[in-house]
Amino acid sequence: MPQNTQRIGWIGMGRMGFPMAERLLAAGYDVSIWNRTRAKAEPLAAKGAKIVDQLGDLAGVDVLFSIVATGKDVKEVYFGEQGVVAGGNGRLPRIFVDCSTIGVEESAEIRRRLGELGAEYVAAPVSGNGKAVKAGKLSSVVSGPEAACRTVEPIIQAYAPLGVSYVGEGELARICKIAHNVMLGVVIENLIEITLLANKAGVPRHAFLAFMNNSVMGSIFTRYKTPALVNLDWTTTFTPELLRKDLDLGLALGRELGVPMPVTAAAREVVQSHFGAAMLKPDPEKYLKGDFAALLETMALAAGMTLESENKNVPSGLES
Questions:
Q1: What distance in Å separates the CA atoms of residue 122 and residue 139, rounded to the nearest whole number?
Q2: Domain 7-170 has what CATH class?
């Protein structure tokens, strides 16, 4: 195994954080991990990770990564009473790298506060899901001080081998990620529309999606969502609530910058309809906490369709 000299700290063992940290360990990095639920991190101890009990135990690392749900969570793990700063006894990582999807203003506040403490901050959100991480098909966009971004780029490449795009200073990476997730919402909504259109006309979903995936319109995204749309498998990769949050962030940016976003606005309202429709299901949590592609069943109701799994073993494009 190669040895890399930087000491890495990692906060967050969710669907993305676990496999991302796992790839850093495989690349030979010294990785110390904190997670609110320690048990979720413990499987990585067998692969060389050091599991710490206190966030302050990460204050002595060279580079600290975080990937959590919201900007409030980032601020809590950095600046809270039990956070890295408070528990560090004057020590502080040289560079903080946050991979979460958060708002621009929240990120700017975090950058300002870390700067006042003498630390550098890199915004580094990613494109993909947990399966994409495992398949080596993750990419990242980064912004902040260029020297700091170049320093951490080789580390990020260990979990984002498809590419690390430096887009400039400040919070520009946040804007890129919000724009990315707006497209995610618009594409899934339209992909579902046309899949239902073909399906109601008599075309099996697996056959239609195979055609689309092999066409010029196919993509990594359309391929890896195909098994879910064919077999109604709503195992969570990204929740409807998080998608709605990101569409709202995109629309807010559009208003701030004076950019019309009519397609985004329409997609956002379709996603909103999913929340009400889910409450009419016998098991609403399956649709509210499950994968955002469950929007397929909501939109099928509006089309007068009741769907069943096609029980087809279709490729996702993420196979090893």
A1: 15
A2: alpha beta
